[in-house]
Each structure stands twice: as structure tokens, then as C-alpha cells.
Amino acid sequence: MTLACTRTHVHHNVPLPTPTLSLTHTNGKLAYTRTEVEDIMQPYLRKLRKLKRSKPSSLEESVAKTLFELETSHKTLRQELPRFHINSAREVKVPRSKKTAMVVFYPLRFLMLVRKVQRALTSELEKRHPGYLVMLVAQRKITKRPNDVYKLQKVQRSKTSSAVFENILNDLIYPSDVVGRRWRYRTDGSKLMKRIESRLRAVAYVYKQLTHRRASFGFMWNPKLQQVSTQ
Q1: What number does CATH give the domain 44-139?
Q2: What is the residue-wise DSSP string for 185-212?
Q3: Where along the chain do its domains lie?
Q4: Coiled coil located at which positions (predicted)?
Q5: Positions of E strands within the chain
Q6: Confidence bin at 74 (pLDDT 50/70/90)
Q7: What is the mean pLDDT of residues 178-206?
Q8: Alpha-carbon distance 7 to 190, whole Å?
Q9: pLDDT cut 90: percent of the chain above it
Q10: d(Cα 16, Cα 170) in Å, to the nearest integer?
Q11: Is the predicted pLDDT of residue 11 greater than 70, yes or no?
């Protein structure tokens, strides 16, 4: 029988986690569930989604530890990170680059929270993971394109492949802005998307790995678009 019980006492000198627990009542004894024991022994696992807590990769575990440390000690981030966790993390080897890209996926509902602290959070993650270029990407779902044209009208624009890929690119280059975009059509019928913003070659490679679409990046040097302050 499973009971919802508030924290009232300690069993076998094991410290209890915060307020409410689901305890299993067996023969008059109270026992912790496996998830609760893991949270007690390894509190940093709370920074991972529940499905990842039992078997996290070494990279995901390292990111979770860093997030937990920042939550407890960082002057700015400790106010925002308590309600934040990640879904997964993966490495992307970038050709002809000294650094490896680390792509950290987090739930879409944390998008605005991450935007507020993304510069500081990315900087701290890169400090604690030397040799990595950290990129934070919100986890989005693509709705399968229906064959029926009437059902197609009911598909949300934000869940189409085009919208998802656009948002992934915005996540990768943030806090930079997309200031230009053009499509180059080739003679074989394929097309190469060219964008102009301030980001690195690694972003183009990671974008291709995530979306299977090619993109090239560059700087805009038009002096008419530059803002100059005069005194």
C-alpha cells in the first residue's frame, strides 16, 4: 500500500529530502522508493529529467553536477536554476576545430528562463568544461505531416519542421540575431541556406547534425548598418 506522508521521522538514520514523500508501507515499516534514495544520495540528479536519472551518460552527469553547484553557490544563477533541469546532453565533434561542441537540451517550458541567464549559464558551463563550446537548445517536437489536406490545416505552425528548425537555429546563435537570410538554388535542384550573423563554424556543423540541413554563416560589414556613437 502506498501512502502520501509528510516528513515526520527518520528511518535508519537516512536524511529525508524536502517536504512531501511517497512512502511504501510494508509490514509496518517505512521504505524509500528507488528514486527518492537516488535523490538523497546524489542530489545533483534532480537537474536531469526522471527518465535519465537511472542511467545518465558521463557528460550528462557532469553537466548535472555543474548545474547543482551553480544553483547552490552562484550569485546570479542560484535564483533561477532551482526550477530548471535538462533533458539530455550530447557531444558533437566539429571538423577542423580545437573545441568540441556540447549541445544541452532542456524542456521548452524553460525557454524564457534560459533566455534571461543564457550568457552567464553558457559561460559558467564552458569554464567548468574546458575544450567545449556549449550550446543550449530547447527540446521541440515536430508533428508528422498528415496526408489529408483538411487535417493539415489543424497542424500548429510552431510544430512544423520548418518552424522547429528555425527555432533551433535561433537557440544556437543566441544572443546573436539573424539579420539576413537568403536561399541559393543550385543547378541540380537543391538549395543552400545562407545566413548572416555573428557565430562560429561550429554552429553550422551542429545545426547540420541536428536538422540535416546545410547552413553557412558570416559577418555583415555594411557600414550603413553599424551604429556609431559620437560625442
Answers
A1: 3.30.300
A2: E-TTS-EEEEEESS--HHHHHHHHHHHS
A3: 1-41, 44-139
A4: none
A5: 2-6, 20-26, 29-31, 88-92, 100-107, 132-139, 180-185, 191-196, 215-216
A6: confident
A7: 62
A8: 62
A9: 16
A10: 42
A11: no
